[in-house]
Amino acid sequence: MASLKVPANVPLPEEDAEQLQKAFKGWGTNEGMIISILAHRNATQRSFIRAVYAANYDKDLLKELDKELSGDFERAVMLWTFTPPERDAYLAKESTKMFTKDNWVLVEIACTRSALELLSAKQTYQARYKTSLEEDVAYHTSGDIRKLLLPLVSTFRYDGNEVNMTLARSEAKILHKKIEEKAYADDDLIRILTTRSKAQIGATLNHFNNSFGTSITKFLKEDSGNEYVQLLKAVIKCFTYPEKYFEKVLRQAINKLGTDEWGLTRVVTTRAEVDMERIKEEYLRRNSVPLDRAIAKDTHGDYEDILLALLGHGHA
Amino acid sequence: MASLKVPANVPLPEEDAEQLQKAFKGWGTNEGMIISILAHRNATQRSFIRAVYAANYDKDLLKELDKELSGDFERAVMLWTFTPPERDAYLAKESTKMFTKDNWVLVEIACTRSALELLSAKQTYQARYKTSLEEDVAYHTSGDIRKLLLPLVSTFRYDGNEVNMTLARSEAKILHKKIEEKAYADDDLIRILTTRSKAQIGATLNHFNNSFGTSITKFLKEDSGNEYVQLLKAVIKCFTYPEKYFEKVLRQAINKLGTDEWGLTRVVTTRAEVDMERIKEEYLRRNSVPLDRAIAKDTHGDYEDILLALLGHGHA
After folding, report:
1. Does the keyword Cell inner membrane apply (chains A, B) (predicted)?
2. Is the CB of B285 less than 8 angstroms away from the CB of A203?
3. Is B288 in Cβ contact with A199 (below 8 Å)?
4. For residues A175 and B169, what is the distance between their CA atoms, to the nearest angstrom?
5. Which residue of A32, A143, B212, B217 shows the fewest CB atoms closer than 10 Å?
């Protein structure tokens, strides 16, 4: 469930655009106004506001925000104001660049979005950066990591719920054999995880658990030292328990000395309209502190305000 | 979230009582009518119907149901028609009797209900059976199992959300030490699990996980052979992941040769008004088959119909 709060009576996009334009004007920027509008509109409403802003003021709202804001607050506002495919394309692009390389973000985007959402992010990626996500991932990775990540971002997975139990049984056996041999980058193992539907992978992993008495991630735990195995675990976590995957990203971002604002902003902006309520629940359960309180302790100012607004605080 | 579906316009209790009275009359019983009424009314509405039935027809609705119905269907209708405290008292009583002894059910009732719900079940128990739950548990158990179960059903736990992190840290250390020594029935270990608030136990177990790199249940897994350790694991599971605990009870009930109807009926009737939607979600995730389909495959007739109605099927 989403944490985003949209008011019962949403102002017309024209009114929102006008208020935003006023917020930029004059001496200083009215950050509170920006938050009170953008952090309480859904993706469709935000894109209407951008369209009306462009038509009425002949300016790109995103460029205005870029000009007026700065730091972590700017990054949060920008990421949030994007449409989901633009945001994913942007995050994926960062993740394939030399200094912002992040294989985990690629796994996250490839495995927690639906097939159509991933496709749509890849189309936006091409339109915007004039390259494909596939070629950038292939170029910037190597070895086993490329062997896993490339098909992961390439496949247009079947999204249906049907499950073939015979197949699940036989592929669970393959996975078990390969993992016992510590052949974590085996062709078949990668084929199963990168091409089967999420429902089918779920069935295979359930069979694994039923037949071998432990979940596959527990088998992998012993070897969790190297990046490849950790990515493999992240893939499985994203498929089976996305809310726990995101809880962990948030926990690590918040507990890190100095806070990892990129991770924090990314999870809050990408999940506020999707499943943030569930992630909050997991966060409380795993940390015995509500997520909003943990964020309020670690952040401040406008940046804190927008994160809390996206978590469901404040008037809507 | 509850799976129970109540119609937008609920008939008056007088009308429901009249329909039920008609369903009992004449040649044969109208089971469909009983389901269509009782399985779509919440606890308050059901008790109004019982009160009106007693007033208008001078008969106890529960006794009428007992007379008219039989088998698994009867048990499901009876358990469902009870108020939650009556139902818990009834289940607890069964669990302390010689031939229906079930320590797991006692753990389930003691650990997944709020302090007030447990108290209320114990008051009903006393009013109904003229003994206390505590004396019956004490009398019918012994050794380590009594050492764990008796305080578990006795304590009126604090239900607040506040958490003492210093205490969590020190008690996590105690738990770790005792578990490493395999002193699973240690006084301190039992004291912590049977007297601390659920929020505080959650914090302690989170600290355990953070400090020792694995959850406490994984430590216990190796020794899962004996009943005491299994009960200890059930206690922890009920506190931390009740929806997974109930998923497992359902999975085992359904997968059992011949189906364990008692377990199935118990979980469906006790959780339909509480968190059955979450349990259904976990069931699908863990079994790759929706719970309603698994139940439909394993049961039939009126029994199947009432279970599915309580899971949210049918007109409401």
Report:
1. no
2. no
3. yes
4. 38
5. A143
B176 lies in some domain: yes
Structure tokens at B180: 């490493």
- What's the CA gap between B316 and A198, in Å, rounded? 33
Give the pair of three-digit tokens for residue A303.
């940046």
Q: List, as one string, the DSSP characters of A125-137.
A: HHHHHSS-HHHHH
User: Based on the domain organization, do A89 and A52 belong to the same domain?
Assistant: no
Q: Got the DSSP string for B130-164? A: SS-HHHHHHHH--HHHHHHHHHHHH----------
* Residue in B with minimal Cα distance to A285: B202
Q: What is the pLDDT of residue B219?
A: 85
Last residue of one domain, picked from the residues B154, B187, B207: B154
- Tens-digit pLDDT profile for residues A259-296: 899 999 999 999 999 999 999 999 999 999 999 999 99
Pair (B140, B172) in one structural domain: no
Which residue in the set B206, B218, B285 is minimally distant from A287, CB to CB? B206
User: Cβ of B163 and A287 within 8 Å?
Assistant: no
Residue A170, C-beta contacts closer than 8 angstroms, at least 6 positions apart: none
Q: Do B203 and B256 fall into the same domain?
A: no
Cβ-based neighbours of B27, under 8 Å, separated by 6 or more:
none
Over residues B264-283, mean pLDDT: 98
Q: Residue B105's domain is classified under what CATH number?
A: 1.10.220.10
CA distance A41 to A36: 9
B170 shares its domain with B226: yes
Are the Cβ atoms of A288 and B163 closer than 8 angstroms? yes
Q: How far is B22 from chain A (nearest CA, A)?
A: 43
Q: Which of A131, A154, A177 is the last residue in one of the domains?
A: A154
Total domain count, chain A: 4
B269, B255 Cβ separation under 8 angstroms: no
The C-alpha of A218 sits at a distance from chain B's nearest C-alpha, in angstroms, of: 10
pLDDT for B231: 96
- Domain limits for position B171: 165-240
Interface test with B, best of A236, A254, A288 (most B CBs within 10 A): A288
Same domain as A294, residue A259: yes
Q: Is B1 part of a structural domain of the chain?
A: no
- What is this structure's pTM? 0.89
Tokens for A126?
């091409």
Q: How far are the Cα atoms of A32, B77, B295 from residue B268, in angstroms, in the given order?
A: 48, 11, 11
Radius of gyration of chain A (CA): 21
Percent of chain B that is helix, strand, coil (3-state, to 5): 70, 0, 30
Query: If you average pLDDT over residues B269-281, what whole number do you get?
Result: 98
Q: Are residues A143 and A93 in the same domain?
A: yes
Query: Measured in whole angstroms, how far is the alpha carbon of residue A214 from the centre of its chain?
Result: 28
**Domain-embedded: residue A76:** no
The answer for A303, left when phi > 0, alpha when psi is -120 to 50, beta otherwise, is alpha
Residues written for chain A: 316
Question: Do residue B234 and residue B255 come from a single domain?
Answer: no
Mark whether B174 and B231 lie in a shared domain.
yes
Query: Is position B82 within any domain?
Result: no
Q: How many helices (H) and strands (E) does chain A have?
A: 20, 0
